[in-house]
Predict the structure of 7-carboxy-7-deazaguanine synthase.
Amino acid sequence: MNTEIQKLVDKGDMLPLMEEFYTIQGEGYHKGTAAYFIRIGGCDVGCHWCDVKESWNADLHPPTATSKIVDNAKKYSDTIVVTGGEPLMWDMTMLTTKLKAFGLKTHIETSGAYKLTGDWDWICLSPKKMKLPTNEVYEKAHELKVIVYNKDDLRFAEEQASKVNKNCILYLQPEWSKRDKVIPLIVDYVMQNPKWKVSLQTHKYLNIP
């Protein structure tokens, strides 16, 4: 990447765009809602079960002008979901400022491992054991979504729930490849601990992106 482009990326004027698409939000509080997804490349959190490992290497995803990303997004929906990868590896201020200039609602899905930048209407915090969230994102998260791969993830979920703000909605979501094994575990746990809700990847059941 040449120096001038790198400067634009550092400022958030360009972002390593992996893909963008209009679909139905499949997870968490807004499931079933039409939304335009912006997937940003780059992630070093390293979840072994990640279903978009092709997003990890930001160098594979060309820096794209933020204004162009916003022009595409505004054609489809008033709800924009920024995901990754880990989008907070990049400065989200410019992107959310431009989206909000068109009256669009800004949502982010993040591990919270990096400084929170941008102006967000909804923050979905999905923390990972390998690289824990910042204190700020715990305080501001609207929903906590813990992916359950094994029983120890329930312990981790409680640990994370103790750190978020009192209004944060708590979700346990089965890791897709282990769903048959962990769904009964999650259901039992939520029935015993009703502060939690079950989140499913409904888009996968619906066979949509």
In short: The chain has a mean pLDDT of 92. The radius of gyration is 17 Å.
